[in-house]
Known about the structure:
The protein is an alpha+beta fold. The chain has helices spanning 8-12, 17-26, 47-52, 78-88, and strands at residues 35-36, 53-62, 66-73, 94-100. It has a four-stranded mixed β-sheet with strand order 1-2-3-4, with helices on both faces. It is globular, with a radius of gyration of 14 Å. The mean pLDDT is 91.
Amino acid sequence: MLDQELRREDIQGLRNADAVAALFATLGFRTDARLAQTPANLGISADSLVRSIIRLERLADQEGLLQVYLVELTSVTITATRGLATALRKFAPYFLLVLTHDY
């Protein structure tokens, strides 16, 4: 299955990490290897960024070629987004960040 129809309700119904993982599973991503992470595990050391991370989890890993990370932040900002992208750049050829403040 290459295309998956999504409805507005599929996105509006996202209330927690499990729901986000279920959405990616529906889209064909391998979510059986979910892995909670710490900022240190991913080389994130900037104090301001570390303090802004509430939850950090790898939701899916497509054979090491694409990894999907869920990041719950105190506030989604450009600075946080850039800091996360810079840190994750070295872990997979491609990654997708799902950033949220309050689902």
